[in-house]
Design a protein that fits this description.
By secondary structure, the protein is α/β, with parallel strands linked by helices. The protein has 2 domains: about 170 residues, P-loop containing nucleotide triphosphate hydrolases (Rossmann fold, 3-Layer(aba) Sandwich); about 80 residues, no CATH class. The protein has 10 helices and 10 strands. It has a 6-stranded mixed beta sheet with strand order 6-7-8-3-9-10, with helices on both faces. The chain has a 4-stranded antiparallel beta sheet with strand order 2-1-4-5, with helices on one face. Helix 3 crosses helix 5 and helix 3 packs parallel to helix 6. The longest helix has 21 residues. Bound molecules: adenosine-5'-triphosphate (ATP) and magnesium ion.
């Protein structure tokens, strides 16, 4: 089933076409990658999908409903969560509390209910903590549950961000360079985590420069270059695609 349909999405910054007529679908239960050289428009694409930026042209349909124009909070409530290229955690809060903050869109309890400690809020709080602990185990950060984010090693912080994004119970998870700064072992563990998340019923779109990870986890790849989609298909075809190889030449060459 088609979960997300991006259609003719375009965004200019002054004279620069950051995203230029990009269309693709994401099917439920799959992992899709978006790759492309630096400045290709990958993060801008995520911003357009998640309401952090508004496209000049085009539509983004989640289960047939156009979400363009929704603010980021509404997009989360509609079922799309994301992480950012640069880690965005509450540094003084523990891993557990970072995930609980991500859950607030889900909880019924408002500030007043929480302050009055009504009986059902305690139940709700307990369930929330259980769910948060579960998500920390799911991504493999359980040993840092009570550690402030500032004291957690880099690789584990990236995973914590994913747990926080999952706290909103999304149908679709967008990850912007989750492997950035991870070593080989951590990247392998990230791949297994992505499979576990997918197996929980969450569809994933991942922007990533680590081609080993991309080729391993993704069923389909969208390739952007200077704002335009230049290729789309399964990893084995993308690796051989002449336009893709051309786009990466003059970059670091080692990518494809
Ligand atoms: N808010 C903005 N204002 C002006 N230009 C922008 C803005 N955001 C992005 N750009 C430009 O749009 C282009 C696409 O940027 P984007 O961050 O989407 O690329 P990217 O594919 O995510 O690159 P990277 O792999 O380096 O993260 C770049 O040329 C960038 O400088
Ligand atoms: Mg980017």
């Amino acid at each position: 089933m088609r979960l997300l349909a991006v259609c003719d999405l375009s965004k200019r910054f002054g004279g620069l076409a950051a995203v230029d007529g990009v269309s693709f679908d994401v099917h439920e239960g799959t992992i899709k990658a978006v790759i492309g050289p630096n400045g290709a428009g990958k993060s801008t694409l995520f911003n357009l999908i998640t309401g952090f930026d508004r496209p000049d042209v085009g539509s983004v349909d989640l289960l047939g409903c156009n979400i363009v124009g929704m603010n980021p909070h509404k997009v989360v409530r509609a079922g799309i969560s994301r992480t950012f290229q640069n880690t965005q955690l509450f540094e003084e809060l523990t891993a557990l509390d970072n995930v609980l903050v991500g859950m607030h869109t889900q909880l019924r309890t408002g500030f007043l209910g929480g302050a009055l400690r009504l009986p059902w809020t305690l139940t709700e709080e307990r369930r929330a903590r259980e769910r948060a602990s579960y998500l920390l185990r799911l991504v493999g950060v359980e040993q840092y549950v009570m550690t402030p984010a500032a004291d957690i090693p880099h690789g584990m912080r990236r995973l914590l961000e994913i747990a926080r994004a999952l706290a909103a119970a999304p149908r679709l998870l967008l990850l912007d360079e989750p492997a950035a700064g991870l070593n080989n072992r951590e990247t392998q563990s990230l791949a297994r985590t992505l499979y576990r998340i997918r197996d929980e019923g969450v569809t994933i779109v991942v922007v990533e420069h680590d081609m080993g990870l991309v080729m391993e986890v993704s069923e389909e790849i969208v390739v952007l270059d200077r704002g335009r989609k230049i290729a789309e298909g399964p990893p084995l075809l993308i690796q051989k695609d002449a336009a893709v190889i051309e786009a990466y030449l003059g970059e670091e060459g080692e990518y494809v």
